[in-house]
Amino acid sequence: MTDDIDQVLIKALMEDSRRSLKALAGISGLSSPSVAERLRRLEERGVLKGYTVEIDPKCFGYQLQAIVRIRPLPGQLQEVERQIQAIPEFTECDKVTGDDCFIARLHVRSMEQLDTLLDGLNTHAETNTAIVKKTPVKRRLPPME
């Protein structure tokens, strides 16, 4: 699937997706054209799906982050999914097995905004919300070995 050099490149890009080909070449011991070719192949195979920017939501006034477990009422699954997709404050959502159908991450500016957003869902679903105090493990790659 991937070799040691691919993994070095992937880890370097995870740390800083804006690294230049020259910088990646220095890290990997390859030439810049070789790095470009490896990245192209990783993209074609779907290993690298994109390059991102990480922002701090607090810089945009989003002071609170919540994890919301959502259990649609009978017959409301598609409507609840549509509503979640339509609310931009939901920044992540997974459809899961178990008692709840969705586990979502939500960024809001205030408790009042949280209440307003969830009130709109509560006509179609039951919700259970936890406020995030700290994120001791940020999104990271699973082991590639």
The backbone outline, from C-alpha atoms, is: elongated
What would CATH call the homologous superfamily of the largest domain? Lrp/AsnC effector binding domain/regulation of amino acid metabolism (RAM) domain
Strand content: 15-25%
**What is the total number of structural domains?**
2
What is the terminal-to-terminal distance? 10 Å
The total beta strand count reads 4
Strand order of the largest sheet: 2-3-1-4
Structural class: alpha+beta
Spans of 5+ residues with little confidence (pLDDT < 50)?
A: none
Radius of gyration: 20 Å
Characterise this structure.
The protein has 145 residues and is an alpha+beta fold. It folds into two domains: 4-44, Orthogonal Bundle (Arc Repressor Mutant, subunit A), CATH 1.10.10; 57-131, Alpha-Beta Plaits. The protein has five helices and four strands. It has a four-stranded antiparallel beta sheet with strand order 2-3-1-4. The chain is elongated, with a radius of gyration of 20 Å. The termini are close together. It comes from Pseudomonas violetae. InterPro entries: AsnC-type_HTH_dom, Dimeric_a/b-barrel, Tscrpt_reg_AsnC-like, Tscrpt_reg_AsnC/Lrp_C, WH-like_DNA-bd_sf, WH_DNA-bd_sf.
